[in-house]
Design brief:
With 260 residues, the protein is mainly alpha-helical. 57% of the residues lie in helices and 9% in strands. It has a two-stranded antiparallel ribbon with strand order 1-2. The protein has a two-stranded antiparallel sheet with strand order 3-4.
């Protein structure tokens, strides 16, 4: 039996299971930026770390780069399929947060133009392909299918609070657990039962039906995703162009006044 992991090793294992990036996992575990690139891959050769990752469903092979691991690049290098260092960092950030604008901010792009920059990067064919490949690999590792995701969204979107609780003008009464269907239980976001002067005080909150239905509509192709983002991007670009035009006009005006 392998000896237990240290706290740092446990953090490394948890981060590597999430990112498949040895250097990033070493940084998250607390190693210095100077040594993370060396100590990260080295950690993947330790038997107890390999065993811990195996328990998490990840097999580490003793090769230059284990399958599924995202490679950290040196400045100026390019991955296969023409992905630059910045694009690879964007892919990694997007896989973590799932939001193009937030991913753009995380890799250091201007917060002011994060939405347009993120959307632009997301439309680069090589970036889109890299994201799709990593998402597919993740789905295979976790055995999460599109049908399962749609089922969970449907549970949230079509849940009826009346199937979970009864209420009148004075109190809320939960139905017995055995009478609440599994699909309805999945829709519960918060459930608290506290003692009160006049009986139990119950707090019940379901997950957002609107967000679930919007996500489900995107999955099923009921409307084209990104249309709102495109509109916002176009408006942002228009404002930027107007600002630049105003700046140029002001420079011309000031130049004319100096000549006078």
């Amino acid at each position: 039996m392998s000896p237990p992991l240290t706290r740092r090793e446990a953090r490394f294992v948890a981060e590597y299971a999430r990112t498949r990036n040895a250097k990033q996992s070493a940084l998250a575990a607390g190693y210095s930026p100077k040594s993370a690139a060396v100590l990260g891959p080295r950690a993947l050769t330790k038997p107890r770390i390999i065993a811990a990752l195996r328990d998490a469903g990840i097999t580490i092979l003793h090769v230059a780069r284990p399958p599924g691991q995202l490679r950290c690049e040196v400045p100026g290098s390019r991955l296969r399929k023409g992905i630059s260092q910045r694009q690879r960092r964007f892919v990694e950030a997007y896989l973590v947060c799932g939001n193009a604008a937030e991913a753009a901010r995380r890799i250091g792009l201007s917060p002011k133009n994060a939405q347009s920059n993120g959307f632009r990067l997301l439309r680069v064919p090589a970036v889109a392909a890299a994201i799709a490949a990593e998402q597919k690999a993740s789905a295979e590792r976790t055995q999460i299918s599109m049908d399962r995701v749609r089922l969970e969204l449907a549970r949230l979107g079509f849940a009826d609070i009346g199937d979970i609780a009864d209420w009148d003008g004075e109190r809320l009464q939960l139905r017995p657990r055995a009478l609440i269907a599994k699909d309805d239980r999945a829709a519960i976001a918060e459930l608290k039962v506290r003692p009160g002067k006049h009986g139990a005080r119950i707090t019940l909150r379901l997950h957002s039906k609107q967000r679930a239905l919007e996500a489900l509509a995107k999955h099923l192709g009921f409307y084209r995703p990104g249309a709102a983002s495109e509109s916002a991007d176009a408006e942002e670009e228009r404002r930027a162009a107007n600002a630049e035009l105003r700046a140029r006009l002001m420079r011309i005006v000031h130049a004319g006044k100096k000549e006078e």
